[in-house]
Design goal:
The complex is a heterodimer of chains A (230) and B (249). With 230 residues, chain A is mainly alpha-helical. Helix content of chain A is 75%, strand content 2%. Chain A has one domain: Arp2/3 complex 21 kDa subunit ARPC3 (Orthogonal Bundle), CATH 1.10.1760.20. In chain A, strand 1 and strand 2 form a beta hairpin. Classes of the chains: A mainly alpha (230), B mainly alpha (249). At the A-B interface, helix 1, helix 2, strand 1, helix 4 and helix 7 of A face helix 2, helix 4, strand 1, helix 5 and helix 7 of B.
Chain lengths: 230, 249
């Protein structure tokens, strides 16, 4: 869910921009360090960003019968880590607003905060926690993607509730209203994205073990994790 | 290539400096967001449509196809404003000023979208990215964005063709088959993206790649006359908004 151009009042738009800035700057510094240390990473990171862009363009079937697109934040965070995802997500959102008229420039800060910061960090935290507690890779991947998707929509609900408080019950009522609307579609979609991410990861384990090892998802020569999966 | 970017490459204003078009497009967007929706957003929308269809030479059909996307999001996003929850009139009731708020929001968002579309329809992203370094964006970030932009189109094209092939092989006939095909599609996109990156790396290494992607930027100078006209238009919109607002009250 991208908040459309001009949807937020100017003060809110600016405030979310300010809130996102430290995370994006942190990501930019991490990315710059990585590229200066390994110049060939530019192409790998570019390919990762392009993959994130394309992933958000895929249509997934929803339980309600309609279609929606995955946020891609969970898979992105697991593969590339949240600081890098903050930058790649920001560039992706910028491209989406300019090339697809999806999202917006005045709402870029708000969209970056939900899709490129909270989603990846929440998803990655759950994924890392489950991995450390010994959960199988695919279970961790499912819950990582599920939480990333759902937390993105929860933050979007909060952003909309703060901007448009309910006339009767204020921000709490607006949060219930926007959250309730999203819950109908987004809980099934979060489950769908979790399942899709598991299927993608299974295929990647078969076809791209080298890349997954390089990205740190698998350990060097670490068939232990894969064995745990199967 | 995506339709908006394809239109931007063939735009009448392609050779104009991106700063000029950014000042006009984003200036209109800022006006749409900051001014009172009535009559400010209406004036901004009228000005943006006039510039888009007139001097910028965008085809009306192309503009509508691009504009209807944000418009659809705005309409669905404005619907919750029509209702109030948990008030004295019941758990869910019609909000007293709901329609007014929804219309204001629609005016603001539709006008703001037109401002950004004005920039997007006249300025290819490939003209903007290399210039961002001069604006203070770190070079590595711009390089990553450039690679994303170029590989993104190739991947989108590949995904489209794979999707067609999957459909032709009855890969989308049942829900289970659709899920399998979709997972295969995403995984193939990942593999292709990394394959492209590796091949690009080998090609660039053969040309003495030192970590900086050097691209030719079409030369363009900022026109003071264009900027003055932009400032005049924006000032005129602001002034007219306040005059009309007072006379309408």
């Amino acid at each position: 869910m991208h908040i459309a151009e001009g949807f937020l009042p100017p003060v809110h738009a600016a405030a979310w921009g300010v809130a996102s800035a430290p995370f994006v700057i942190h990501g930019v510094r991490a990315l710059t360090r990585e590229v200066r240390a390994n110049p060939e990473s530019t192409l790998l990171l570019g390919a990762s960003g392009a993959f994130t862009f394309v992933l958000s363009a895929l249509k997934i079937p929803s339980v309600t019968g309609s279609c929606s697109h995955p946020t891609g934040t969970g898979l992105g965070a697991i593969l590339f880590r949240p600081p890098i995802m903050a930058v790649l997500g920001t560039i992706t959102l910028l491209f989406q607003s300019l090339l697809l008229a999806h999202g917006g420039l005045t709402t870029l800060g708000a969209n970056v905060f939900s899709l490129a910061i909270v989603g990846p960090w929440a998803g990655f935290a759950v994924y890392a926690l489950l991995r450390r507690s010994g959960a199988p890779l695919m279970v961790s991947v499912f819950f990582g993607a599920f939480v990333a998707d759902l937390s993105t929509y929860c933050v979007t609900s909060v952003q909309l509730a703060l901007a448009f408080p309910d006339p009767g019950s204020g921000i709490a009522g607006a949060l219930a209203k926007f959250g309730g609307i999203f819950a109908v579609t987004q809980i099934p979609l979060a489950v769908s994205e979790g399942l899709l991410t598991v299927l993608v990861m299974r295929l990647l384990l078969q076809s791209s073990k080298g890349e997954l090892t390089r990205l740190g998802v698998l350990l060097q020569g670490g068939n232990k994790k894969e064995a745990a999966v199967r | 290539m995506l339709p908006i970017d394809a239109a931007a490459h063939g735009s009448r204003w392609r050779r104009r400096h991106p700063c000029e078009k950014a000042a006009l497009g984003f200036g209109l967007t800022v006006c749409a967001v900051s001014l009172p929706p009535w009559p400010g957003a209406v004036l901004v929308a009228a000005a943006a449509v006039a510039v888009l269809l007139g001097p910028a030479g965008v085809a009306p059909r192309q503009l509508w196809r691009a504009w209807r996307i944000p418009l659809g999001f705005c309409v669905t996003g404005a619907i919750p404003l029509l209702f109030a929850v948990g008030g004295p009139d019941g758990f869910v009731a019609l909000a007293p000023d709901g329609p007014l708020h929804a219309v204001r929001l629609l005016l603001r968002t539709s006008a703001a979208s037109l401002g950004v579309l004005l920039f997007a329809f006249t300025t290819p992203v490939s003209d903007v990215l290399p210039r961002l370094v001069r604006a203070g964006v770190p070079g590595p970030v711009v390089d990553v964005a450039l690679v994303m932009y170029r590989i993104g189109f190739l991947l989108l094209d590949a995904v489209h063709r794979i999707r067609q092939a999957q459909a032709a092989r009855l890969g989308l006939t049942t829900r289970a088959a659709t899920w399998r095909s979709l997972a295969g599609l995403a995984a193939t996109a990942f593999v292709r993206a990394f394959d492209r990156a590796q091949r690009l790396q080998i090609g660039l290494a053969g040309r003495g790649y030192d970590g900086t992607l050097r691209v030719l930027v079409p030369p363009a100078t900022v026109s003071a006359r264009f900027l003055a006209a932009t400032a005049g238009l924006l000032a005129g919109i602001v002034a007219l908004t306040f005059v009309l607002e007072r006379s309408l009250l």
